[in-house]
Amino acid sequence: MKKLSIAAIGFAALSMVAPAMAADMAVKAPPPAPVVAVYNWTGFYIGANGGWGQSHGCVDLITPAGAVASGCADRSGGLVGGQIGYRWQTNQFVLGLEAQGDWAEIKNTRVSLIDPLISTTGKTDAIGLFTAQLGWAWNASLLYVKGGAAVTRNRFDIFNNVTGVGLASAGHTRWGGALGVGWEYGFTPNWTVGVEYDHLWMGRDNTGFAGVVTPGGFTLTGSGVTQDIDMVTVRVNYRFGGYGAGYGARY
Description:
Helix content is 9%, strand content 71%. By secondary structure, it is mainly beta. The strands form 2 sheets. An 8-stranded antiparallel β-barrel has the order 2-3-4-5-6-7-8-9. Strand 6 (141-160) and strand 7 form a beta hairpin. It comes from Bradyrhizobium japonicum. Belongs to the Omp25/RopB family.
């Protein structure tokens, strides 16, 4: 009986101490919130591009009596080249500077309106763009507009349709303006892929000849060519800075 009384007293004391001990135990902290990777577009980048270009040009042939329209035509061809630039990101705004250069094969030959015995060939074989960018980023997706200066290298030839002999030729470099829009996506911290459209206003370019006489008896002293170019390119860029440099942390 005495042993049962001692056991009952011990059990009662243990029952009173247990809640106090439970109250003194540390409460386990909740797990931290997950870290979400946020893409950052800041940094130098270099890349390659390729696509398609179309040029719309009108030719005037200059005679001693004045300019005579020789016709307008579209010509199209492939583009391939590269670009290099730098971007700064502030919140969702992205500013950038870029230089782009492309080899081109945009060429067209047409019969002259003033003399069906001659044809003219216009060719653009190089295009350069020097532009500033303004973009809006949604994490790894970037939509931007760009504008600046454009330069093209062109060649203009006149030849005899009957004999195939060249009558006159001129190579020239012309400057104009460029405006474009593009979309780019970062599929890894350093690599991006995108598509871009650009329109180039190249104005009018005049070239002088040393008195070319056509088979039809016209004397040509020069030419004037107006030109606009549309470009659509697919771009792949690599941004420098090491793996993970393009990401920040957001909790």
